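Exercise 7b. Backbone tokens:
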């Protein structure tokens, strides 16, 4: 056995020893009737042992099945069924960078008071929904998702178990395939609205039975449906951009369960940059509404280019390809003409959208994402800006008001590590959650859930949920139980949960012909290592923004790579072959080692010759 192989076995034995130790602790813990620490690894060792985590822990989700009618549900998220890359550096080859984010060998123990990831990094291949753009939960067994699969387009789904392992596809009545669904808001398990591109003609649908969504009616062609909000008493609202260039967007409002919407356009005399369009809203009463807006430096050019390519920007970093049904995470960049900057605007109406006033404006620092209000006077809003494209105050900004008029900066997260955030939820006048993410390096990134119990004066930061790139939607069932939809660094979907027992035991299923990549911090690939497995002969996204096809030689000693500048493994490729089980330095400064499966583990024929493999896509 080689030195590297010995080190690999040694690491495996070390984690085995640790898991046995934790198992011993858990058996004592179960005997003493306390809530045990549960990791996916320990759960695997327990198998169907004495007591399941759910039997031991009183899960907070079961204490309520009523949705909070003041909750605000957001929008987009996710996909790429293949494993993607972590850091984006241009023109890097597969042999010199890491293929994707991988999970730590030992994960932080989860209990009902912590946020956990229900699926397994790095590739989250066990998540049954490939794209998650919106999430709204009436209970832990009735969670509704807007999203889809790259192979079948956009749909509405319902998860009927606590861990999103049992998911049903619901009916959305539409004469043609749906271009995009961006958000969903459920008042309860039977009444809700889902929205997407365009207003009311194949753009917004309602349900009265929780199973079939029918097309809404109303004023046509004014707004897109970016974010949907259930308000109680069959009232619903949505916020979105205008459908034409120069239209700032506004609000759609329904008082009959979503059957009919009236559009309330944002006025054009707000005194803001014309690129600063409406983004999200909060509706603490029937007449008092808050709407956030803004733009990033290159937003006008980015949106034009995306529209021409059949894509749509959900945020500065998140793009949905409507043709392929996949998410793309893009890096912030300056305006091509370098003539625009960040702009943010926060507005209010007290007469149901007839008149508006500007409460806060900012230039040069950030643009607004979500806003949430517990009352007409107590609200929080989040904004994000990035140093890479000129923000003078980068990071995730949390703003708050105590009187519904004056807004103040409360907290900045991740100013020095590309901090960002889209989702915020108020549970009371003093308690709230904000979903933050950061991307400091290939091995240092993830989601951090920010929590305050004193009205935003202080914020506690959760443990890091690794490889989560953007949290796009949070839905609280009650104050201690919630779910969140997210996009991973690899551009896949995952679900985060609070107040939920750990998911079923066992590792995520991986293809038997997958090759393994170790990502490490030292030149011997023996320290700080994390592991990930990737499918051979399928299109893998790379950190350079391109793609690659990879396969192994029959004896597993050589790995063949075909690098493409395109994102879908088409066009010309650069081919190369390299030895496996060799520690290589990545362009990002970390180290990696590729390990091919043994011949017995390989499914299908893999040729010895360096030939371009047939492209296959794996549906999530």
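Sequence design result:
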């Amino acid at each position: 056995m080689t030195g590297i192989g010995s080190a690999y076995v040694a690491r495996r034995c070390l984690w085995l020893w640790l898991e046995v130790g934790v198992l011993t602790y858990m058996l004592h813990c179960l005997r003493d009737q306390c809530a045990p620490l549960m990791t996916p690894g320990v759960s695997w060792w327990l198998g169907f042992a004495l007591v399941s985590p759910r039997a031991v822990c009183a899960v907070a989700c079961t204490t309520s099945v009523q949705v909070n009618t003041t909750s605000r549900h957001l929008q987009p998220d996710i996909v790429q069924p293949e494993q993607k890359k972590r850091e984006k550096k241009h023109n890097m080859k597969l042999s010199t960078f890491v293929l994707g984010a991988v999970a730590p060998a030992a994960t932080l123990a989860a209990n009902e008071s912590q946020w956990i990831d229900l699926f397994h990094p790095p590739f989250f291949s066990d998540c049954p929904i490939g794209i998650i753009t919106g999430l709204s939960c009436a209970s832990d067994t009735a969670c509704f998702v807007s999203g889809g699969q790259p192979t079948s387009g956009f749909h509405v789904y319902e998860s009927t178990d606590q861990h999103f392992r049992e998911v049903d596809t619901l009916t959305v009545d539409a004469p043609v395939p749906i271009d995009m669904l961006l958000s969903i808001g459920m008042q309860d398990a039977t009444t809700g609205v889902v929205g997407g591109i365009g207003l009311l003609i194949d753009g917004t649908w309602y349900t009265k039975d929780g199973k079939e969504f029918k097309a809404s009616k109303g004023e046509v062609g004014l707004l897109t449906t970016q974010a949907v909000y259930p308000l109680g008493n069959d009232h619903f609202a949505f916020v979105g951009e205008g459908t034409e260039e120069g239209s700032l967007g506004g609000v759609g409002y329904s008082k009959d369960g979503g059957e009919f919407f009236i559009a309330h356009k944002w006025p054009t005399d707000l005194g803001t940059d014309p690129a600063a369009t409406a983004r999200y809203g909060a509706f603490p009463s029937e007449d008092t509404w808050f709407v956030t807006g803004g733009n990033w430096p290159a937003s006008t050019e980015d949106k034009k280019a995306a529209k021409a390519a059949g894509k749509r920007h959900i945020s500065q970093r998140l793009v949905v390809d409507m043709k392929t049904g996949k998410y793309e995470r893009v890096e912030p960049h300056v305006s091509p003409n370098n003539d625009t900057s960040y702009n943010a605007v926060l507005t209010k109406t007290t007469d149901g959208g007839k008149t508006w006033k500007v409460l806060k404006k900012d230039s040069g620092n950030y643009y607004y994402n979500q806003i949430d209000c517990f009352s007409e006077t107590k609200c929080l809003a989040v904004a994000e800006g990035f140093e890479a494209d000129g923000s003078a105050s980068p990071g995730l900004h949390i703003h708050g008001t105590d009187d519904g008029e004056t807004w103040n900066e409360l907290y900045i997260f991740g100013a020095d590590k590309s901090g960002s955030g889209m989702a915020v939820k108020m549970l009371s006048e003093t308690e709230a959650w904000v979903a933050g993410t950061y991307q400091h390096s290939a091995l240092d990134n993830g989601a951090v859930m920010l929590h305050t119990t004193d009205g935003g004066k202080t914020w506690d930061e959760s443990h890091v949920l690794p490889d989560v790139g953007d949290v796009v939607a949070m839905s609280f069932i009650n104050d201690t139980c919630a779910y969140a939809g997210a996009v991973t660094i690899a551009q896949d979907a995952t679900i985060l949960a609070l107040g939920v027992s750990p998911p079923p035991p066992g590792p995520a299923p991986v293809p038997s012909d997958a090759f393994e990549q170790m990502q490490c911090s030292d030149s011997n690939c023996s320290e700080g290592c994390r592991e990930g497995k990737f499918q051979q002969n399928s299109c893998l996204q790379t950190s350079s923004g391109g793609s690659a096809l990879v396969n192994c030689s029959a004896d597993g000693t050589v790995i063949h790579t075909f690098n493409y500048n395109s994102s879908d493994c088409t066009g010309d490729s650069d081919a190369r072959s390299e030895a496996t089980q060799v520690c290589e330095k990545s362009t990002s400064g970390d180290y990696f080692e590729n390990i091919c499966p043994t011949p017995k583990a390989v499914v299908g024929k893999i040729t010895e010759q360096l030939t371009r493999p047939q492209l296959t896509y794996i549906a999530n």
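Instructor comment: The CA atoms of residues 480 and 571 lie 50 Å apart. DSSP finds four helices and 43 strands in the chain.
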